[in-house]
Batch of 4 targets.
Target 1
Amino acid sequence: MIGVSAESIVKPMWVDNNTYSLGIFYNGSTATCNLSISGASGTTKITNCNVYLKNSSGVTIASWTNYSATGDTLDFCKSTTGVSSGNTYTLSFSATVHRNGNTENISGSTTKKY
């Protein structure tokens, strides 16, 4: 079985340099969804992380909500079935980064046709 992937480039979010990497990896009937958030120096936690995989019609195929991590990194990896070749999928997320007594909301998405 040949795996195909879609992965966004790590992107700086603000001046504080919070970054994320987001990817969908497809192997024929299963999509593995990966997210890694790295908070800027001084980040104490990342909360309220919600991840959604949707098809091209906007129908949610899978959702994972309320993930959190203590420290400056949140890593997420989950798989789901119900995906098929010839379709377009969007993986999106939102989260809150806590740093130096302040919070910053971050979000992102990546879309790939398989």
Target 2
Amino acid sequence: RRIGSTSPRVAGYDLPNHGRVTLIAAPADHPEVLKYSAWKHALANKLDKASQGPTIPLIAVACAVYNLEAQIEGMRELKNEGEFGGRRYNFGKLSAISDLSAALGSISKSVLGEGNTFIKIINKPRFEISKIPLLKQWAENLHIQTGSSKLPILRTFSAFAMLATTAITIWDARRAWQQGDLDTAFAYGVAASGGAAWTAYIFGMSINPVVLIAGAILFIAASVVAGWLVDSDIETLFKNGPFGQYHRETRVPDIVLGDGDRFRHLSEPGAAYQQLLGVLGKPVIKAERLADWWQSAPLDVRDSLKRIDQQRKPSSQEEKCVRPAAQRLEPDDWVVIVHSPLFSMFQPHLFQLYAREDLALLYYNGAFNAERVERREIPEPKLAAYPVGGATVMYILPKQFPVQRQTPIVRFDKGIIHRLKVFGQFWLAMDAERSKALVLPQPNPKMWKPYVSTYWNRPPLSARAGDAVYWQIETSEFEV
């Protein structure tokens, strides 16, 4: 810009009036500005063409399906965090469904074609932004970006879906802060800022394609990093336990948000030590067929099982009422190995373990065929809590379904899967009255609840991992 005939002052000095002073600022027709503008428009056109093709919408659909599965299955334990955890779980599912719907709407143009009536309805500009006086700049940016100051239905829905995802990321940052995961909270905060930039571009508030690229990179990368930085159970105990840096410390954000007592139970050394034992001694449950396990079993254990098996009478069709504990062992029976470094101090007669066997068939001759599942509870083991070393016990469970054999040709017609679902609870009695006892598994320290007598009751067979407090639920699959 040029300053004319009057004598201007720069930094307190009078400039002579015999010439013009030029302030350094690139004009609109500057070569570098023109290069940047051309590059920006070229990048925007490439992004627009890529979004119109089937590749990016297809990737978006795959990511949305994965996100839906993660919100439904991976976040199931949030329901145990109380009212706020339940709200986060339900809101996450709704957001994931919205993301999947928007992704399917984006790919529908490639599938149905531009002339389809449905495609015209969802892509026609409908929501006028310029009528709102305070949003004139938004309308101008949207017109520059899309050629219209109106938002289509699909673009509006996609923007609100991304806005909901950003809100969930902020929610996760709040939860991480409450749990003492400050680095995770920071990563989620960065992801939320990237999600906000991404949302602004979808809405048309920002016309620079660099904002979209930077927002997408920040959101995706920071979300992945946040997943890596989430504190494990042992880290949570060390941070908030008797020797942790946050022991008996209630931070101001926790008080404001009403969660100042979240880790108050760790202020008692006994409870903290009990949870530490629960984390370090969490049982590991593995299952396989007796014939497969027998090949790698220790010789002394095999000899002991042979002696036990020989003492039992051979089963026959007439002896169907014989209890499983008196039946002979069969190659297709289930062997369940339970290991914990604390089992040497446990009393096996206080263990609870029961299981269910599922037989699932899926035929491949139809596009909409569903898996057919038959379920049978295993009422009693053939061998219960048999010690295999000082820290391992073994259960042998009777098979409920005969193992079906498939030829290579039949495998192309249907798939057969045997599933064994195991429920376990293990007690270490501390005194004769059992008034004080360590129960494995312990709940997550972030969602810890004191043990009450009702937790001794068996959960329903439909329960999933994390649904029942003080119960460990493991499901093993074996494809035929």
Target 3
Amino acid sequence: MNIPGFAGMESYFNSLGTAGLALNSFVESFFLVPPPDFMLIAMDLAKPERALFYATICTFASALGGLVGWLIGRFGGRPAFNWCVGMFSKNKEKVHAQFDKIEHLYNENGIMALFLGSFTPVPYKLFTIGSGVLNMNPLHFFVISIFGRGARFFLVSVVLMFFGEQIKEHLTVVILAATAVIILFFIVLYKKRHSFTKSRK
């Protein structure tokens, strides 16, 4: 996404080093700034021995920023969500469709929806603000965010630790493949639980 001002923001975060990585991860959870992945990848490649430390920084900063997004959604309601999605699209119908989609996912399985939103390349802020609008339990929200964001950032850092520069261009494929495996796992788990519940009746 080529957005005016992104280059300047990236330069600013980079100039702060590890603190910039934390700040980038925190703010990206509720506002339109460059994803922390770019900075994480660069820092992992520069110092692979500190890759797990960088992933930890990203995880907790992002989850804490997610709580800010939750508060924005909780007290700002649908207008806050519409404003957030409006940063990506000026199409009002698409904005409403995005919220309806997230609401449907939460109604079906809130935990899986948030986990996948935390893990996949879909903008995490849509789920943080959407969780607040839908009044998801904030403690559950924070714990799931830790696991979802942690899974994403640690996957990136571990892969780069082992494969370095040669895997850099294929990280999106790795994340999408991992997402597919996780979705499959949840589907199997849901079906087993559903069949077990039916057998108990």
Target 4
Amino acid sequence: MGLMSTVFLQREELQLNRKELEETRNELKLQSLTFNHQRFESSFYQLLSLYKENLRELSIRKVGSQSERIFGIDALNYLNKRFDDACMGLRAFSDDISPAAQDEYLYHLFSMIQSVYFRQSRYVETLANILILVEDELESEQRKQAYWRIVVSQLTAYEVKYIYYQALASPDYGVLRDVILRSDVLRARLATLDIRDDHKKAFNIVWGISIPKKRRPFHSPLSSEQVRLVRMSIQKREKEQKNNSI
């Protein structure tokens, strides 16, 4: 009986030790996850701060001037306007042109992008490093989307447009194209910008990434179903008025 009691107590003690060991493992795992999350967030926001600093320091020399320089957001806005003006003379891309004509169109488009959009390597590569950090450190696609939303929310329309054309014309910025492909929030943002449809088509031809056509966001306290019914009612009334006028 004494021997059996000893064995029983030893087994109970062993089970308690195993339970304590499992709890210790879980606690260490939780501490490790917390530490990794804190380390990631620290690196993420430090890079985001560095990105903003690089944006402020970004500068270009104004065309026709030897000394006048433009900085930050104003510089990107200036480049976007210059590019839009330059594109006015570029023939729009169409689906029915020959492969040779298509290549010629892409050649002129890429040459124009590279001549107007001066490459700001430190600025763009800081953004690329933020995206790489999110991609490499986070396993959950949901968490990646959440941090991509944070990044995109910090970008002005001028920045998004500049980054778009860098991703279109430069083979080096695969990470930017990958986020354009996978991030719904960035693709939705691109759909609100004034980017020519033939330039979006060029992105699809060269990189296989479809960019949504421009649309203006509709904000209303009505539900989507209410909006749909109202639009149907308007269309029906307009059709009846048209038939009556005939």
